[in-house]
Amino acid sequence: MQKRLFIILFLIVSFSSAQNVVTDVQTYTPQQLVEDILIDSSCITNVQVTNVVGGNFGGSDQSYGYFDATGTTFPFQSGIVLSTGRLSNVDGPNDSLSDDDAAGWDGDQDLEIALDETNTLNATILEFQFTSEATQISFNYIFASEEYQENNANTCQYSDLFGFLIREIGTTDYENIALVPGTQVPVKVTTVHPEIPGGCQEENEFYFGSWNDNTAPINFNGQTKVLSAVANTVPNTTYEVKLVIADEQNYRYDSAVFLEAGSFELTTDLGPNLLESTNNALCENQSIDLDATQTGAIIYKWFKDGTELLTEVNPILTVADTGTYNVEVTLSNGCISYGEIVIEQFPAPTTINTTLTQCDLEQDGITTYNLFDTDQTITVGNPDLSIIGFYNALTDAEQQINAITTPDSFQNTTINQVVYALVINNLSNCTAISQITLQISNNNLPTYNLDACDDAIIDGLTTFDLSQVSTQITPLVPAGATVNYYLTQEDAFAENNPLPTNFDSTIPDFQTIYAQVTTNGSDCYAVTDVNLNVLFTPEISENESFEYCLNNFPETITLNGGVLNDLPNNYYYQWLLNGVDTGVNTSFIEANQIGVYTVIITGTNGCSNTRDITVTSIEAPIIENVDYTELTTNNTVTVTLSNTGDFEYTLDNGTYQPSNSFSNVSPGIHTVYVREIDGCGMSEQTIAILGFPQFFTPNGDNYNQFWKPIGINDAFNTDLDIKIFDRYGKLIHLLNPQSSGWDGTLNGQLLPSNDYWYLVSRSNGQKIRGHFSLIR
Fold first, then answer.
1. Which among 441, 463, 658, 739 would be 20 to 30 A from 403, CA to CA?
2. 714 DSSP β-pair partners
3. Cβ neighbours, 10 Å, residue 18
């Protein structure tokens, strides 16, 4: 029973290992890894490992070694691998994070210089020398990393670094040959990846291999496709190679580079693969010379899709068909250099031949064409196709020489002349040639006249609705034809600068433009004149405003139509009030209603002009109240009206003012006047401002003979009770407001000069006290 269980466990472990890459750090020395595993060729000689650097993990673990991928889906069967961490973390499946927490070791300055980076650490290095027998060497590799994180923006920002650095012995500067094919861009996570949603656009996605799930044969989240590192060499010259990979900034998230066993070999450069996916494929009917010339070569063998081309024994092979082409170049020392190229073809652009018909006004068979009118027809509306030139001869189009210099105004030399359009596919740069047959049209259309009234600015310029002409042309031409209008015949022939349907004329009073009828999208059917005639529009005054005094109703004011530079009787009139016809059709109207009077003035040619006359109301002022102060050192008067308008004010026939207030008003009887400034009525109101004289002089000279309060008459202050006292408070006189005043006597006896007091009582209960002087 125990024996059977052991056999089952052994089979399970063996089967599991067969599905995943397995690493080995014990079996091979660094010299063997390079000389026997990576190179394994007698044509690359003097191989000598000169330097090895790796992580010190204790025990038997290393950061470089051998890998075996037999029976797995990994693209290489075996080879050597360099990592930024423990080699034991490389083995599949991808079910854990390859992320060493061991103490870091040094980085590599040569790598930093070559990649223009800094802060490397955990550098694993295999450095060796070799001598090449050919002009080129290459080897295959795959870069894999935990920093490939699907749908994670970290992929756009972080990457470990690696390089394959090579230099001729005796020189100082390395060349990095671990590059994105066809560029000088180092291969890194950040330079080779698909689009990361929300992170970054794709970078060299064609060379990205895959995101790895937990069944992948290696323990990394992503990897590139198989890439080749290629270096040009001088035969029989010794070179130094440094294979180096390192963490950048920190030890987290390991990376590794896998080098295919036996792939370090002599190669012959046939150029980059010509593929549709990289947009450099051949065009249909295009050929290319594959040049395998090598110094010291004695035999050339060419293969297409694995089959030897027995008759092709020269160093240059001209090919025009798709396929995988290989060459084996045997050197004089018996070494063989291998080259390969994959060639694909773009299809030729799909175009058609066409005709272009142009009108011939002179009817001599010679006219002017805009060859670009054929663009949509020839390219079948494909936005990826463009016409890049026109030619008189097919051979010129094929060689792209002697292009027609003015294709937008090309004049033919013979009837039914043929020219050629060179069409390019903007994506593939492949070309095709289409034939254009130039035909003549001699159809005639009548001359059309279109009238339009001058607009509000009387200058002989106005807007014409050209669709009115189109409706006359359409019944006379084939169905589906289009009509366009142009300023000149040249523009009409070239179909340049078409005019808008609502065209603003550019020449005063009279102008000729040209209608071109087109069929089949670009064929000229006919060209004819269109005469534009600007009709005279009555010249009238601008809009006006008038004021009507409501106090004058039903009197009227006269509003005139406002014709300028002509007799009013030469026109027809229609008057509207607030948009309603008044029935008045004379050159003037008598108005006594408020509103907008619109007059439409029409000439004998039917052209009209319109202006508005706005009538607004004014009225006499209505005094609502006059407020005033009295018995102060600065008496004031303020007038309040119950209506609004442009009014001005005066007091006692003084100078009119716009203000409704007066100050420093003396005691007495005053009249306030308010008038409308345009003469629409006046209002007035009398007021009495009470005041008391400070002295009087009853000395018989008829001046100041009596003392009496100011501001009293038959209408104002009639209710006053006025008492006069001497200095001792004795009542000496009761003054009647309607009398002439107190004459300074008591019982007929003259009182002496002195100060006297008064007490004035009003019917509203107000009492006013003060004193005055009697002076003799």
1. 441
2. none
3. 14
Phi and psi dihedrals of 153, rounded to 5?
-65, -15
Mapped onto helix, strand or coil, the DSSP state of residue 652 is coil
Longest dimension (CA), the chain: 170
40 and 114 co-located in one domain = yes
Same domain, yes or no, for 571 and 638? no
Average pLDDT, the chain: 92
Is the model's pLDDT at 679 over the cut of 80? yes
CA distance 37 to 74: 17
| Residue 700 shares a structural domain with residue 757 | yes
Is the peptide bond prior to 272 cis by the omega test (within 30 degrees of 0)?
no
Region for residue 16 given its phi and psi (left: phi exceeds 0; alpha: psi -120 to 50; beta: otherwise): alpha
Asked if residue 165 and residue 27 are part of one domain, the reply reads: yes
DSSP 8-state symbol, 372: G
Kindly state the tokens that stand for 366: 């010679």
pLDDT of residue 15 exceeding 60, the answer is no
Distance of CA 145 to the CA centre of its chain: 40
Q: Do 526 and 598 sit in the same domain of this protein?
A: no
C-alpha distance across the termini of the chain, in Å: 162
Q: Which of 213, 232, 266 is the last residue of a domain?
A: 266
- Provide the 10 A C-beta neighbour count for residue 51: 12
276 within a domain of the structure (yes/no): no
Distance CA(717)–CA(688), nearest Å, equals 8
Kindly state whether residue 3 falls inside one of the protein's structural domains.
Answer: no
417 and 495, same domain (yes or no): no
Cα 267 to Cα 137, 154, 294, 345, 722: the distances in Å are 5, 37, 10, 25, 140
The region, left, alpha or beta by phi > 0 then psi within -120 to 50, assigned to residue 81 is: beta
Following DSSP, what letter does each residue of 637-669 receive, concatenated? EEEEESS-SSEEEEETT---BS-SEE-SPPSEE
Please list the residues that pair with 453 across neighbouring strands. Answer: 535
With 0.90 as the threshold, say if the pTM is over it.
Answer: no
Task: Tell me the chain's radius of gyration from C-alpha atoms.
Answer: 56
The DSSP element (H or E) to which 15 belongs, if any, is helix 2-18
Q: Look up tokens 């005063």; give the residue.
A: 508
Which tokens go with 62? 């290393």
Residue 31, Cβ density class (10 Å: 0-12 exposed, 13-18 middle, ≥19 buried): middle
Give the range of the structural domain holding residue 747, as residue numbers without chain letter.
Answer: 695-774
Length of the chain equals 776
| 2 falls within a domain | no
H or E, element range at 121 = strand 120-132
CATH code, domain with 453: 2.60.40
Q: What pairing do the DSSP bridges indicate for beta strands 255-260 and 136-145?
A: antiparallel
Distance, CA of 600 to CA of 561 (rounded, Å): 8
Residue type, 514: Y
**H-helix or E-strand spanning residue 224:** strand 222-224
Compute the distance between CA of residue 83 and CA of residue 99 in angstroms, rounded to an integer. 11
Domain C-terminal end among 320, 346, 372: 346
**pLDDT band, residue 728 (cuts 50/70/90):** very high
| 770 in a structural domain | yes
Please, are residues 711 and 691 in contact by the beta-carbon 8 Å criterion?
A: yes
CB 314 within 8 A of CB 301: no
Backbone dihedral region of 298: left (phi > 0), alpha (psi from -120 to 50 degrees) or beta? alpha
- pLDDT recorded at residue 3: 35
- Residues whose CB falls within 8 Å of the CB of residue 67, separated by 6 or more in sequence, listed in order: 21, 22, 23, 24, 76, 78, 79, 80, 81, 90, 258
On whether both 608 and 667 belong to a single domain, the answer is no
Domain count within the chain: 7
Q: 673 and 747: one domain? A: no
Q: What is the CATH number of the domain that holds 328?
A: 2.60.40.10
pLDDT in tens, 40-74: 788 899 999 999 999 878 778 899 999 999 999 99
- The candidate with the shortest Cα–Cα distance to 284, out of 124, 440, 401, 430, is 430
Q: Is 39 helix (H, G, I), strand (E, B) or coil?
A: helix
Q: Residue 23 above 70 pLDDT? A: yes
